[in-house]
Specification:
Elements: H1 3-23, E1 28-29, E2 43-44, E3 52-57, H2 64-74, E4 80-87, E5 90-94, H3 97-118, E6 126-131, E7 138-142, E8 155-159
């Protein structure tokens, strides 16, 4: 194997290792990378754990325009063409600007949704209606907020009685066995071996 292919292989393995470690992505280096005339990417992301189609380049001279054309040509529809290259011992990535903006919009929207989910509901907006359901569970109704666009809709949160074991874990309905496999009250619990 030539020195150039070893350099390319080491960068591809570094990228795959980083994506597996930080994102838990099931990516691996394509063993046919650099071989043949058909267009393909350097990393295989069969399960599409990331939105990227990655082309890796580890060259002394940088030719971003040419590399980006190659990356775009090999990218599957719906994926972000991503060029990853080595420049002065730094690993850099290049993606189209529109895709960068779309990623930023997704991050902003998800962050706002998470913040909204984390914000507590004021007690003044909650009303206890008592035992309303046929199955005997209690029901909380969130009073509509006039400033909310969905003020006509009410959100219901069912609070049902949840059984727990002596250690405080949730118990399987009907069997009275703990669902935590490490709990002594679980059906799959095995005592640790004493040495």
């Amino acid at each position: 194997m030539s020195l150039a292919s070893e350099k390319g292989k080491s960068l591809e393995e570094h990228i795959a290792k980083t994506l597996r470690k930080k994102l838990g992505a099931r990516v691996q280096r394509d063993k046919r990378s650099g071989a043949g005339s058909h267009q393909k990417m350097d990393l295989t992301d069969y399960f599409q754990d990331t939105p990227f189609s990655i082309e890796a380049k580890n060259h002394k001279s940088i030719a971003i325009k040419e590399w980006m054309r190659q990356t775009k040509a090999g990218t599957s529809p719906g994926r972000i063409p991503t060029l990853v290259f080595n420049a002065d011992d730094d690993v850099l990535a290049c993606i189209p600007f529109d895709d960068l903006v779309n990623l930023a919009v997704q991050i902003r929207d998800l962050t706002a949704e998470i913040d909204d989910l984390r914000s507590p509901i004021p007690a003044s907006r909650l009303t206890y209606l008592g035992d309303q359901n046929d199955n005997g569970s209690k029901e909380l109704v969130v009073e509509p907020n006039p400033s909310n666009a969905l003020s006509e809709l009410t959100k219901r949160i069912a609070i049902s009685g949840v059984a727990t074991c002596r250690n405080g874990h949730i118990v399987s309905p009907g069997s009275n066995r703990c669902l935590d496999k490490h709990c002594a009250f679980s059906s799959t619990y095995k005592k640790p071996k004493v040495k």
